[in-house]
Amino acid sequence: MIQGLQSIAFENSPYIVESASVVGKKEGEGPLGSMFDMVEENDLFGEDTWEAAESTMQKQACVLALGKAHMEAGEIRYLFGGDLLRQGVATSMGVEELNIPMFGLYGACSTSGEAIALASMSVAAGYGDNMLAVTSSHFGSAEKEFRFPLGYANQRPLSAHWTVTGSGAFVVGTKRSHVRVTGITVGKIVDYGLKDSQNMGACMAPAACDTILRNLEDFGRTPDDYNRIVTGDLGYVGQSILFDLMRGKNVDIKKNHMDCGMTIYDQKTQDTHAGGSGCGCAAVTLSSYILPKLARGEWKRILFVPTGALMSTVSFNEGESVPGIAHGIVLEHC
Fold it and tell me: Among 19, 83, 182, 271, which has the highest number of CB atoms less than 10 A from its own CB?
């Protein structure tokens, strides 16, 4: 199943059996509001802290995905999950009650791609019939972790993203559905030396370019072989940089490119500056908007490329640059 330098083409393609999306109030007010499985009007989700709210949101997404797949937690062999917080506490606390053997992941905003890739590899290898991939992010917990407490009310630059309050969960398995994972391209860490943590689109665009080019080369394809090439959360700034980088390699993806961070919010009516970001951004957009289009056959094949900025408060405060990573997931209608 090895394909090229960084990719895998599955001989027995696993399926996206079901998925679920849970979001906060702001996301529910955006263009995709009616498509989410659950919109919570109170971003605390009935909890006392932002971190507990994110855990609750992630648990709800898992339970909804399992319910839609008509499965019990005991039917899931392994869970692959992650978030943006230190030591992945949102995930470990969120899925604790499900009592599923789990792998905790961290790929920043690319974690949904990492989770789906590993779940797909495990199913294809025969390590279990059903896996669960889940990711989440929360505006309140992310601002508290990486930037400033919300009560500080600092001014955000125009290049800054708005962290999506959302969680997406995906049941990956052998049970036939209308969407299958036919291949993956595992990304490399790409670092252009940028140090502006408020401009994550610029930090992540080089990694997205690297993974897209590698996918096309490994599979012997052109951009026209995909109905959409979907990045996770480059936003308006990152998209422009990605187009420039791709054209520098004599590849033009402008006509069939889509970015989840630009899709989930309305830039004209919602004050989100460069667009959405966070682990939940690509995950909930995939679940609510992209997978239904594939299931209906409106799109036959897409390349889903969640993007992540690999930084921490420690590395930033020590003056280190912000490297990026992106993982490519090939999804096809069947």
Answer: 83
Widest CA span of the chain, in angstroms? Answer: 53
Note the pTM of the prediction, 2 decimals. Answer: 0.94
Q: How much is the average pLDDT of 157-170?
A: 85
Residue-range definition of the domain harbouring residue 231: 179-333
* Residue 8 covered by a domain: no
DSSP per-residue string spanning 127-174: S-SEEEEEEEE-HHHHHHHHS--GGG-PPPPTT--EE--EEEEEEEES
Q: What is the CA radius of gyration of the chain?
A: 18
| Phi, then psi, of 279 in degrees rounded to 5 | -55, -35
CA 139 to centroid of chain Cα atoms: 15
Give the position of tokens 């605390």. 44
Distance CA 57, CA 297 (A): 30
131 contacts 76 by C-beta, under 8 angstroms: yes
Instruction: Give the tens place of pLDDT for each residue, 215-260.
Output: 999 999 999 999 999 999 999 999 999 999 999 999 999 999 999 9
Taking Cα atoms as reference points, which of 296, 331, 284 lies closest to residue 37? 284
Q: Strand 78-82 relative to strand 130-137: parallel, antiparallel, unpaired?
A: parallel
**Tens of pLDDT, residues 32-41:** 999 999 999 9
Q: Are 143 and 258 in contact (CB under 8 A)?
A: no
The pair of structure tokens assigned to 136 is 């989440």
Q: What angle do CA 104, 161, 56 make, to 5 degrees?
A: 40
**Do residues 31 and 131 both lie within one domain?**
yes
pLDDT at 149: 61
Helices (H), 198-312: 200-219, 235-248, 260-263, 279-285, 291-296
Helix (H) / strand (E) containing 329 = strand 328-333
Integer Cα distance of 112 and 83 in angstroms: 9
Q: Does residue 218 belong to any structural domain of this protein? A: yes
Closest CA to 284 of 33, 81, 4, 49: 33
- d(CA 290, CA 183) in angstroms, rounded, equals 17
